[in-house]
Amino acid sequence: MRNNYDKIASMYDLLSRMVFGRAQVKAQIALLPYIEKGNRILIIGGGTGWVLEELTKLFPSGLQITYVEISANMLELSKQRNVGENEVVFIQSAIENCQFNAASFDIIFTAFLFDNFKEDKGRTVFTLLNNWLNPSGRWLYIDFQYTDTHGWWQRIMLQSMLLFFRFVSKVEATHLVDMTVLFRNAGYEVLFKTERYKGFIGAIVYRKLAVNNDAVSA
Asked: Which fold has domain 6-208?
C-alpha cells in the first residue's frame, strides 16, 4: 500500500526526534491556538497521535475530531492517547477514499501529509479537503519547504528522506508539491506563519474565504 508507515510506526517519533529534534513538534503546536472550543476538526495523517494529547491540554472537552490515518499500526498507537472528553472518530483509510459532506469541518489539520504525494494526487487531495472545509474555516498546514538561503541542503535532505521512505513505506513523492500555488489559487489568506529548522519546516494557518475557488489549478 502506498504512503503507509506501518513498518516504522513504533519508531517513527524516535526517528523524527533524531533528525529534527523537537522542530516538527514545535511547528505543529504553534498552530493549535487557532483552534476554538466546539470546532469540528479533521486530522489527516496524524502519525502516532501525540497531537491529540496536545489538543487535550488546551481543550479537555468540546472538540469533535475525525482522525484519518492510512496506517493500521499508527492508528492503534493514536487510539491509546488521552483525548479527555473530546469526541474522536478514528478512521483507517487513505484520505482520497473518504467521503464527507461539503463544509463538514471548521478545522483541517495536515502535518507532513502532502510531501507523500505526486503532483496529481496532491491536487486531488487538496480539492477534496478544500470542499470539506466550511467557508471561513481554517487549515492548519505544516510541511517541508525550501528557502532561498538554505535551499541546496534542504533539497539534498528531502531527497534522502524520500528515498528512505520510498523503500520502507512506498512513498510515491519525488519532489515537493507547490502548495503555496494551490492555496493562493483557491483563494485562501494567511493568518499566521512560522518556521523551524532554518526554514525547512513551514507552519501556516490559512483561512478559507467565503468566496472560494472549488476548482484548483496549478
From this structure: Rossmann fold (3.40.50)
Ordered alpha helix ranges (H), the chain: 12-20, 23-29, 50-58, 72-79, 119-132, 151-169, 179-185
Q: If we measure between CA atoms, which residue out of 169, 202, 218 comes closest to residue 12?
A: 169
Task: Give the span between the Cα atoms of 151 and 158, in whole angstroms.
Answer: 10
Partners of 208 in the beta sheet? 188
**pTM of the predicted protein model:** 0.88
Q: Cell numbers of 86, please?
A: 473530546
CB 115 within 8 A of CB 142: no
Instruction: Decide if 83 contacts 64 (C-beta within 8 A).
Output: no
Higher pLDDT, 155 or 54: 54
What span, in angstroms and rounded, lies between the C-alpha atoms of 44 and 51?
11
